[in-house]
Write a structure and sequence with these properties.
This protein is mainly alpha-helical. The protein is built from 17 helices and no strands.
Length: 398
């Protein structure tokens, strides 16, 4: 039996849901650790996504002769940022699915159709986000991967971990083959490709919609063969960790040491391969970054659990961000696209990596303050409320 109790507010059925006659309502107590970890994840994602808010196909365009600060920030990102927080969020999504499934069953409700409806609406919202706001959307992938992860929710902890490993490594093999077969042109600040991309992504909103449709369409085609398996594997890992009490206790010292060794070793190899600037080695570097992100994300979970200690008062601002993760994620896209494509597109011509990181840091402080202020007046984020309403409206008493 899991150590945790179902306590994520997203997991509760809507007020007015039809309960069986023999069902009793179990009060929900939030898991402060999970809220804090989710807050860390949504803030961290922006440090990676900010590079892609302007030119979404390629992201950051380095100079042909890169300043030392660019190299330093890139190495730092390889160890602490790249793919770390998206992996962390994927793990948490699996935890959320399991909590919801567990809670519905506890209430005597049929969990699967409710979760299926929830995932379908997430995919719809992801498509709206990807087409009309920012084509770097991850919600569509989460929706697709969630359906796959739900097929294995009843496995034992060990079986979940084995299945997660199979999914993750299979996906990485396929992604490696695709990456090695692609022949990307050099993308630097001085290249013709950058000039073309800059002109395209800072053109009219209608022209940007065409680019959004192209990118979302491409992702919809390749996700079932690549990211769906990788993300579902992380979700299954989250389910297993939740059941073994990781989000209450963290990891043992021996396990933590292994995670640190794996994270540092893989990140170091990835960084060295990337520094060679040879296309085939850089491609392998990208794969190792994805792999190294997993132990790093688990270390972040351990650190947050040990600091927060499931207290609603410790790391409260971070917990507030976690409670509004969906709304803040979309707001990040709106703010980023407005700044880099419409209000000040010239920033794409001048900003170096350290300046992007500074902007992300400042906006993280804004999100911490905004979340705390918002929750003084409201109990739930606007998009959290919308998603819940759309997913559960047909189960409510009319």
């Amino acid at each position: 039996m899991p150590v945790n109790q179902p306590n994520d507010v997203w997991s509760t059925p809507p007020s007015g849901a039809i309960l069986p006659a023999n069902a009793s309502f179990i009060p929900i107590q939030r898991n402060a650790n999970i809220d804090a970890i989710r807050g860390l994840a949504v803030l961290g994602i922006f440090f990676m996504n900010i590079y892609f808010m302007g030119i979404t196909f390629y992201g950051y365009a380095p100079h042909e002769i890169q300043p030392l600060s660019d190299h330093i920030i890139k190495v730092f990102s390889h160890f602490f940022i790249e793919a770390r927080f998206i992996s962390l969020f994927s793990i948490l999504f699996g935890v959320g699915l399991f909590i919801q499934y567990q809670h519905f069953n506890t209430q005597g409700l049929n969990a699967y159709p409710r979760l299926r409806t929830r995932l379908k609406w997430l995919m719809v919202l992801g498509l709206v986000h990807g087409i009309f706001i920012w084509s770097g959307d991850i919600l569509l992938t989460y929706g697709i991967s969630g359906f796959l992860a739900l097929c294995y929710k009843d496995l034992s902890v060990d079986a979940l971990k084995r299945k997660a490993n199979i999914f993750i490594f299979s996906a990485l093999v396929i992604i490696t083959l695709i990456t090695l077969s692609s022949g990307d042109k050099p993308f630097t600040r001085e290249s013709n490709l950058f000039t073309e991309q800059y002109s395209a992504w800072t053109s009219s909103y209608v022209d940007q919609l065409v680019l959004h449709l192209m990118q979302v369409g491409y992702m919809a085609l390749v996700t079932p063969f690549t990211l769906m398996w990788f993300t579902a594997g992380l979700m299954l890992l989250g389910m297993a960790l939740y059941q073994q009490g990781t989000f209450e206790q963290g990891f043992s010292k021996a396990t933590l040491i292994k995670l640190v060794i794996a994270s540092v070793t893989l990140s170091l190899i990835a960084t060295l391969l990337d520094l060679t600037q040879r296309p085939i080695l850089v491609a392998f570097s990208d794969i190792l970054i994805m792999l190294s992100a997993i132990p790093t994300a688990l270390i972040y979970i351990h650190i947050t659990v040990k600091i927060c200690k499931n207290s609603p008062k410790i790391l409260a601002p971070l917990q507030n961000v976690g409670k509004l993760a969906f709304s803040l994620y979309i707001l990040q896209s709106i703010v980023g696209v407005l700044v880099f494509r419409h209000l000040a597109p010239e920033l794409l011509l001048h900003l170096d990596r350290w300046q992007y990181m500074l902007m992300a840091l400042i906006y993280s402080v804004v999100q911490l303050l905004l979340a705390s202020l918002y929750l003084c007046y409201f109990k739930q984020g606007p998009l959290e409320k919308l998603w819940r309403h759309l997913a559960f409206k047909k189960y409510a008493i009319s």
